[in-house]
UniProtKB/TrEMBL annotation:
The lineage of its organism: Eukaryota, Viridiplantae, Streptophyta, Embryophyta, Tracheophyta. SUPFAM superfamilies: F-box domain. It holds the Pfam family FBA_1. Residues 7-40 form the F-box domain. This is Pyridoxal phosphate phosphatase-related protein.
Amino acid sequence: MSPFLSDLIPDILCRLPVKTLIRFRCVAKPWRSLIDDPHFAKLHLEHSSRTGANVKLFLDNCIECDDKAYAVDFDSLDNLVRFPRPFVAEITKYRSRIIGSCNGLLAVYHRDSGIALWNPTTGKRRYLPPLDEDVADDHDALPGYYYDKNTVLGFGYDEISNDYKVVKMLKSKTQTPFKVMVYSLKSDSWKGIGDCPYDFPTNYNDGAYVNNALHWVGDEIGEFHGGQVIFALDLSTEKYYDVPEGDRSIKVKECGGDCLENFGYMNAGVLGGCLCVSRDYSTCPVKDHINVWVMKEYGVKESWTELLYLSRDEWLTNIFHSRAVGYSKNGDKVLFDEGGGQQPAWFDLEDETGETLSIEGAPQLVSTVIYVESLVSV
C-alpha cells in the first residue's frame, strides 16, 4: 500500500461508527492496531464532537427490575439498542444509576456493589476498587434505594493529565464537612483530598462536568437554605472554587409574585456545553415554579441568561426534581427528566408547551443521559 493511502486510512476510518470499526478490526493486523490505538480513539472522538455524529440518548430504567440498558440515536430517537448493564438488578435490592457521561464513558453507581466505568458501545467496563475500610466505615449513609444526599458523586475527564476521575463525597460520622475521595483511572486507585467546603441541600445533585471541573449547588456548612451557592471542583488542581451567580434580582419571565430573590438552586447541569442551574421558587405565593438559567460564557457573571420557566401546575413532571438533559437537534426544545419516576418530556422554547418522550420498545419511566459513541477504553 502506498504511503499516501496509508495516511488517508485513519482520516477515512475516523468518520465511521464504532460498531463498524469493531468489525473492521478483523480485516488485517495493521487495521486492528490502528483501531486499538488510543491516538486513533482520540481522533475518532474529536471528529464526532466536531460534526455532532454518533450522539446517543441513554435510557436508564430506574423503576423496573431490568438487567438491560437502552439507547437510541439522539437526533432521530430511533435505532433502539439493548445491552447488558454492569450491575445486575434484583427485586427489593438497590438498582444502579448513571452518575455522569464523558467522551463515551458512563460512570455507573450501585449502592451495594460500587462504581463502574463503562463504554456501552464497546461493552468494556472497569469496576473501581472499594474505598479503604476506615473511610467506608465512617460514611454516614442514609437508607434508600436510589439517591442519598449523604453520598454525592461526579465523573469527568481531566484534560491536563489525560485522566478520567470519579469524585465521591461522603457525609462523615465523625466530622461535619463531607470527606472527599477521588478515583484516578490512570492509577486505578482512590485518594483523599480536601474536605468539601459546603453542604448539600438536595438528593438530586450529581456533579455537572464543564470546563475541566465538576459543579454542584450547596449551602454553607450547617446552614440549609435550599442551595445558595454554585461551586466547582477543578479536576486538575483538585481545588474548590465558587462560580459567580447571576443577578438575583432579575427574572425575565415573571410569575406575578414577589419572589425575585427568594429562591435556592436545585441542581447544576449542562446544556449545549454550558453550565446551567435551576432556580427553585417553591415558596412563590402565586405559583410554584422553577427558572432555568444558562451561563453562556463560562466564569462570566454577566453571561447568565434565563432560558425558561416551568410551573408545577402546568408542567408534565415533578419540576423540583427535574433536570435539563439537552437541546434537540434544531435547538428549539429542551429535554427534561426527573430521575425516572415519570416520563421525560420535551419543552418547546417557542410556544412553551411540553410533550412526553416515548420510545417504542423501551421502558417509559427512564432517566436519560446523552453520550457519544467512542472507542475510549477503560
